[in-house]
Amino acid sequence: MVRPEETTQNRQSQGQLQILQSRMEALRLCVVVPTYNNQKTLPDVLNDILQYTSSIIVVNDGSTDNTTEILKDFAGKVEVVSYLPNKGKGYALKSGFNCAEELGYRGAVTIDSDGQHFASEIERFVDYAERYPEALLLGQRTTEGDMPAKNSFANKFSNFWFSVQTAYRLNDTQNGFRLYPLSAMKGLRSVSSRYEAELEMLVRSAWKGIEIVPVPTRVYYPPEGERVTHFRPGRDFFRISVLNTLFTLLAIIYGYPSMFLRRLFAKKKKS
After folding, report:
1. pTM, 2 dp
2. How far is CA 152 from CA 135, 141, 172, 257, in A?
3. Per-residue confidence (pLDDT) for residue 195, from 0 to 100
4. What is the pLDDT of residue 224?
5. Phi first, then psi: what are they for 41, rounded to 5°?
6. pLDDT-based confidence at 9, cuts 50/70/90?
7. Is the CB of residue 193 less than 8 Å from the CB of residue 88?
8. Which of 36, 68, 120, 124 is deepest in the core (most CB within 10 A)?
9. For residue 230, is pLDDT > 70?
10. How many CB atoms sit inside 10 A of residue 20's CB?
11. Could you count the other beta carbons within 10 Å of the beta carbon of residue 144?
12. How far is Cα 235 from Cα 4, in angstroms, rounded to an integer?
């Protein structure tokens, strides 16, 4: 997949990159890259990220292509978590977060390995993290290329159920470009193991009282013939539907009461 190159004025000087790395170190942030059979895009994605930070954890989620050999070329540059067989994106994120906490990080920026995200946007997440250190920062996409119809439908579907389950409105609940405040989440991990895990963590974070802040981010969608996706429409939509049914019930039993009590106690503290 060939992605449009960034202009030279968007690239930063070595001094600016060192400053960004220092800011990330002060916040104790790392970048977690879950990957599964993305051998065509993974090298460029990692090289792009390495322009901005060396605090990278790659989770090889049971890849069966040339990913393992590719990661050998990055030995000493990135931390690698690897296992077999493939267990899904939710499990990969969980593994990456556990590794991040073991290494002493307090937050993790997540970037997909399919080349849709721009590593230069990490600085924007750092800007927001300095203002909202305990918030979950959610990328809100501005597209370069048309968003595929199935992505648009899935996003609107997810946005609707998130609002039902939390009474909050977000415009891009399917974006994998995020910053998770691991210290504020205090071990919160998804129960689901695949694509639905990202929605689950948003919903449970909202119930827990963690602020969710949208961050404008660019995304590139390549031409149809170059797109790589592991989303299985029938099976994954079924899993997402089951999760939404369960979470709607849990919202009534636990989610809404917990959010109400949290707000009530917050008001009493202020008064």
Report:
1. 0.87
2. 26, 11, 10, 32
3. 75
4. 60
5. -110, -25
6. very low
7. yes
8. 36
9. no
10. 18
11. 14
12. 33
